[in-house]
Amino acid sequence: MQPSNFDFHCHSRVSDGLLPPDEVARRAAGNGVDLWALTDHDDLGGLADARTAAEALGLPFVNGVEISIEWHETPIHIVGLGFDAAHPALVDGLAGLRQGRQERARRMGESLAAIGIHGVYEGALAYVTNPNLISRAHFARYLVSIGIARDVPGVFQHYLAPGKPGYVDHRWAGLADAVGWIRAAGGVAVVAHPGRYKLSGADMQRFLDEFKDLGGAAIEVVSGSHSPDHVLHFARLARRYAFHASRGSDFHGPEESYVDLGRLAALPQDLKPVWRLIV
Ligand code: AMP
Ligand code: MN
Ligand code: MN
Ligand code: MN
């Protein structure tokens, strides 16, 4: 297999995406994706439908997930690829991780009420498509709908990012947990959109050292969240650490995402594409 347009990062209604898994599959195929993974946040519930739809379209499919962790108080996302979706370590680990999202969401509602914006928890629930997976994206959509900000990024900037009034700390998984669950289930661990984290150069190195020591194998180099400078920077880090490189749009929905499925730059040619570890 020699895919030329793999996309290993996107979301469905099983987490905070806007389309059901089979529609994401159709969109991926329609956009020319030739090897695809669905990577919902902390939940494997969309994989069976995604695989069935993809296979009916002749689109090769890889199991995926995007796990929420915190590393020295910095929230980070680790993508898992090509794992056994029935493996108890992964299944149970993610179930534990989903617990607590409800409570956090209630606290986000209280915290926004304290600055005079009432009813946001109840409002956000109308946007939730998986009751176990309420995310800040659902809050953002509701806040846009009542005119608090013009668009989702605007809401994050002023209300939902760390340090802002609607942000509530949460105990996510640890780095060793996420990488351990993925590897126990036979999968490959990938650092999602490293350009998004507020880490100094030295802290990023410490993080990548730890990730590699734990058996992490790849980083996203081409991502819907990366600028051209990020691509150059993380390509250099991939070479330095001998990581494989991943590529993913982080597509959430037609009107919401900057980058559509499969509409990404190619990986720098000398990098080792992560699909080589999987298919
Ligand atoms: P949570 O898992 O509840 O912390 O929510 C994280 C989700 O919020 C991410 O997966 C994105 O879908 C969305 N998100 C986070 N930061 C931003 C941002 N700056 N702009 C738009 N969406 C964001
Ligand atoms: Mn999301
Ligand atoms: Mn993410
Ligand atoms: Mn994502």
Helix/strand-derived category reads: alpha/beta
What shape does the CA trace take?
globular
Spatial strand order of the main sheet? 1-2-3-4-5-6-7
Given as residue ranges, the uncertain stretches (5+ residues, pLDDT < 50) are none
* Strand composition percent: 5-15%
CATH homologous superfamily grouping of the domain at 6-86 and 188-277: Metal-dependent hydrolases
Helix content: 25-40%
Order of helices and strands: EHEHEEHHHHHHEHEHE
Rg, nearest Å: 18 Å
Written account of the structure:
- This protein has helices spanning 21-30, 47-56, 88-98, 101-113, 120-125, 136-145, 152-160, 175-184, 201-213, 228-241; strands spanning 6-7, 35-38, 61-71, 74-81, 188-191, 218-223, 244-248.
- With 279 residues, it is an alpha/beta fold.
- The protein has a domain at 6-86 and 188-277: Metal-dependent hydrolases (TIM Barrel, Alpha-Beta Barrel), CATH 3.20.20.140.
- It has a seven-stranded mixed sheet with strand order 1-2-3-4-5-6-7.
- Helix 2 (47-56) links the parallel strand 2 (35-38) and strand 3.
- Helix 1 runs parallel beside helix 2 (47-56), helix 3 runs antiparallel to helix 8 (175-184) and helix 6 crosses helix 7 (152-160).
- The longest helix is centred in the last third of the chain and has 14 residues, at 228-241.
- The protein is globular.
- The chain starts with 5 loop residues before the first strand and ends in a 31-residue tail after the last strand.
- The mean pLDDT is 97.
- The protein binds adenosine monophosphate and manganese (II) ion (3 copies).
- Residues 66, 77, 192-193 line the site of one manganese (II) ion.
